[in-house]
Amino acid sequence: MSIAPLPGPIRIAVDAMGGDHGPAITLPAVRAFLAAHPQAEVLLVGKPEALAGAAGIERCSVVPASEVVTMDDPVEVALRRKKDSSMRVAITQLKPAVPDARAAADACVSAGNTGALMAVSRYLLKTLDGIDRPAIATVMPNEHDGHTTVLDLGANVDCTAEHLLQFAVMGSALVAAVEGKEEPSVGLLNIGEEAIKGSETIKRAGELLRAAADGGHLNFHGNVEGNDIFKGTTDLVVCDGFVGNVALKTAEGLAAMLTSIIRQEFTRNWYTKFAALVALPVLKHFKHRVDHRRYNGAALLGLRGLVFKSHGSADAFAFEQALNRAYDAARNRLLDRVHDRILETLQAMPAGDSAEASVAQAA
Amino acid sequence: MSIAPLPGPIRIAVDAMGGDHGPAITLPAVRAFLAAHPQAEVLLVGKPEALAGAAGIERCSVVPASEVVTMDDPVEVALRRKKDSSMRVAITQLKPAVPDARAAADACVSAGNTGALMAVSRYLLKTLDGIDRPAIATVMPNEHDGHTTVLDLGANVDCTAEHLLQFAVMGSALVAAVEGKEEPSVGLLNIGEEAIKGSETIKRAGELLRAAADGGHLNFHGNVEGNDIFKGTTDLVVCDGFVGNVALKTAEGLAAMLTSIIRQEFTRNWYTKFAALVALPVLKHFKHRVDHRRYNGAALLGLRGLVFKSHGSADAFAFEQALNRAYDAARNRLLDRVHDRILETLQAMPAGDSAEASVAQAA
C-alpha cells in the first residue's frame, strides 16, 4: 500500500476543557507539542476566558465553546443538551464544509469521558463504509520495548465475527499509519492457541481472518492468549470490547498493586529507604520503561474523522503523547488507510462472508 | 451455615505423574505436606517403579496406575484410551464404593493438563444437582495482602446468566470452606460499575445475583471491573471462562514482563548490580509478597468430588500449596457446602428464574 503522507501543516482540534484537569493540563501539553512539531497547528476549543493563557502560543488559535461535558455527564447530556460543548465543537472541526474538501482540523483529541466522546463522534461523523461499529484501540508495552496495539477496549460488547474482522482491518491500518509497519501481524485473543478452542464467535472470526489473510489482505498470525499482549507476539491483538476492557483494567490493576507494594517495601524502615536511595537510578529507569503515560492516546477507529481519546487523569506529558499519536495518524492519512483496507478486504471476501453477513447481523 | 469440619484423617489422592516434572516434584511436595499435616494421609497414584522414593514416607501409600496423561494429550486420549492413567485412577479414588459411603480419598490433586482433568473428572464424578457445568476457581493476590477468588477460568465459554449465578454460589462455598469467611462478598466482572453496562448476559446475571442476595443467599456487592481483582474490592469475582482466562493470562503476562524488566535493569552494569545487592532484602520481600506459587491450586467446582488442579510447571513448594488448599477444602467439607448452598439458592429463586431456565438453557 503506498499512501503518501499528507502535505502541508497538520491541524489538531483539542478539546481544551476535557478530562479531570482541563486547561491546566491541555495548555502546557499543546505548547510542548507545537514546539516539537513545526508543521503542526492547534485549534484550542473551549471557554475563551479559560484559554487566555494560549494568547502567546504560536500556530495556536482558540475556537470558542461555552459548555463543558463533565466526566460524569451521561451520554444523553453530551449528545442532546450540551450542544455547544468543547468536546462537540472540537469534533465538529473534523467535518468538511463541502463534501470531500479538507476540514478545519485533521484530527481531534479529547480527555473527556469515553462514552460521551464515542457517542458524539459517532453522531456527528458517522461510520466509514463497510464499518458497522467504531472501536477503541490503545497500545500496551511489551517485552521487546515496543508496544502491542489492542482493540476493542469497550466500545462494543456482544461482537460478531464480522465485527472482529473489521477491528483487525482497522487496527492494521492504525499500526501502519502510526508505527510505519505496513503489514502488522494480527492475533485473535482466545483462551488457547488451538483453533478448536474458544466460543463460536471466536472460531468463526478465526475463519474470516484466515480467509482475509489467504487473500493477502491481512497478516493473520492466529490465536493468541492474554500473556501474548505483553510478550509482543503480534503487533495487534483483536478482541471484543468486553474482553479487551477487562484485560486492560486487569493489567492496570496489577500494575497499580505492584507499584504500591514496591513503594511499601522500599519505605519500610531506614535500611530499605537507604536501599531505595542507592537503587534510585535503577528504579527511575524501570519506571520510565513501564510508564503508562507514554502509551496515552487511544484511537476511535471506523469514523469519518480521526478522534483520539486521552486518559481523563492524564498529566501534560501524557496528554502530549495523545497529541503526538493524533498527529502521526493524521500525517500518515489513517482515515484513507482504513477506508482503502476495508473496501479491499470486503470486496475480496466470498459472498455472504463479510459484507452481506454483517448487514444481516446488524439488522 | 454451620457445617462442622470432617472428623478423623483427611485423605488426598495425588496424581504423582502429572505436570511437567512428575514425581521429581510431587514426591518432595507430599513429604513436606504430610510433615505439616499430622491428620493427613496421601494416596500416591502412579507407576510403582517411579514412586519407589515414597517407601519411607509415613501415612503415604502407593496406588498403581500404568499410564500417564501427558500435557499435550488431547482430551479424547485421556478420556477413552488411557484408562489406567494416574490422573484417572486418582480421580476414581473420590468415588464411594457404595452410595453415600466415604470414598477412598476426600480430595484429589493433579498437575496434569486442565482440559483432560476437567473432562475425566466430569465423566467419572458427574456434576452436583443444580449445577449445569463445573467451573475452575483460583485465587489472585490483592492489595490487602489477601487474595481474591476468581471463577470461571476457562472451563466454560458462552455462559448464560444462570451459569454465572451457579459460579457465584459455588465460589462463595469455596471461600467459606478454605478461608473461613462464611459470607464472602461477590463481584460480577463487568466493564463499568453502572448496572446498565455490559452484555445482555451480564445484565441478566446481575438481576439473578441481586435476587439471590435479596433472599439472603449471597453477599452480592454489584459490578466490579478488572482492576478490582487486585484492589480486593470483593472476596470473589465471577465471570465467564473466556473473560476469566484472558484476565488471568493477561495478569501473568504483565507480571512476567515486569519481572524480566526489573531483572534487566538491576543487571545492566556494575552500579546497578551493586544497587541490586543493597536492595536484595527489599527485593526478596517484594518477591515473596507477589509470589504466584503461593496461590497455586485451582478448584474444579460443581463436581461430586473435590478435584484441585496445580499449575503444570509447579515446583515442590507450589505443588504443596495445592495440596494445602485441597486439604482445607476437604476438611471443611466444601462438597457439602456447595451442595447445600446451591439447593438453598435454587429453591428460593422465583420459578423460571434459575432451575427451570437453566434446564431450558442446557437443552
UniProtKB/TrEMBL annotation, chains A, B:
The reaction(s) this protein catalyses: a fatty acyl-[ACP] + phosphate = an acyl phosphate + holo-[ACP]
EC number(s) recorded for this UniProt protein: 2.3.1.274
Gene3D superfamilies according to UniProt: Isopropylmalate Dehydrogenase
BP-aspect Gene Ontology terms: fatty acid biosynthetic process; phospholipid biosynthetic process
Claim: Lipid metabolism is one of the keywords in the record: yes
Pathway: Lipid metabolism; phospholipid metabolism
RNA-binding among keywords: no
Keywords per UniProt: Acyltransferase, Cytoplasm, Lipid biosynthesis, Lipid metabolism, Phospholipid biosynthesis, Phospholipid metabolism, Transferase
Pfam families attached to this UniProt entry: FA_synthesis
Locations listed in the record: Cytoplasm
GO CC annotation, single: cytoplasm
Molecular functions (GO terms): phosphate:acyl-[acyl carrier protein] acyltransferase activity
InterPro entries, alphabetized: FA_synthesis, Phospholipid_synth_PlsX-like
UniProt family annotation: Belongs to the PlsX family.
NCBIfam families for this protein: plsX
Cited PANTHER family: FATTY ACID/PHOSPHOLIPID SYNTHESIS PROTEIN PLSX, PHOSPHATE ACYLTRANSFERASE
Role, per record: Catalyzes the reversible formation of acyl-phosphate (acyl-PO(4)) from acyl-[acyl-carrier-protein] (acyl-ACP). This enzyme utilizes acyl-ACP as fatty acyl donor, but not acyl-CoA.
Alphabetical list of HAMAP family matching this protein: PlsX (MF_00019)
The protein's assembly and partners: Homodimer. Probably interacts with PlsY.
Protein name as annotated: Phosphate acyltransferase
Organism: Rivibacter subsaxonicus
